[in-house]
Amino acid sequence: METVGHFIDGSRIAGGSANAPITDPSTGKVTKQVALGSKADVDKAVAAAAAAFPAWAATPAPRRAAPCSAGLRWWSLPAASRIC
């Protein structure tokens, strides 16, 4: 079964040793599992976010909003049309 890890500081990492199921709500079937982050994973993510914040804060709001708008457009597509 596929395990979904984490994306921290531009890199994919496996995450902690424990996993939790991801259930498809329409079928009730477990389709994947997600790695539960460890304290070290959280510390890495917080440090990466803190380091990225000054550049993010200096970016004009319309540019910061663009990825969110793209996500909303993707989400508004019919499920069969979403490619991810």
Verbal overview:
The chain has 84 residues and is α+β, with helices and mostly antiparallel strands. The chain has one domain (3-76). Helix content is 43%, strand content 23%. It is built from two helices and five strands, in the order βββββαα. It has helices spanning 39-58, 61-76; strands at 3-4, 6-8, 11-13, 19-23, 30-35. A three-stranded mixed sheet has the order 1-5-4, with no helix packed on it. The protein has a two-stranded antiparallel sheet with strand order 2-3. β2 and β3 (11-13) form a beta hairpin. The longest helix is centred in the middle third of the chain and has 20 residues, at 39-58. It is flat, with a radius of gyration of 16 Å. The mean pLDDT is 86.
Task: Jot down its keywords.
flat; alpha+beta; 5 strands; two-stranded antiparallel sheet; 84 residues; three-stranded mixed sheet; 2 helices
Short description, anyone?
This protein is α+β, with helices and mostly antiparallel strands and 84 residues long. The chain has one domain (3-76).
Strand content: 15-25%
Q: Please give the radius of gyration in angstroms.
A: 16 Å
**Integer tally of domains:** 1
Total strands: the figure is 5
Unreliable runs = none
Widest sheet: strand ordering: 1-5-4
Give the SSE order as H and E letters.
Answer: EEEEEHH
Shape: flat
Percent range for helical residues? Answer: 40-55%
Distance between the termini: 18 Å
- Count helical runs: 2
Specify the biggest β-sheet.
Answer: 3 strands, mixed
Structural class: alpha+beta
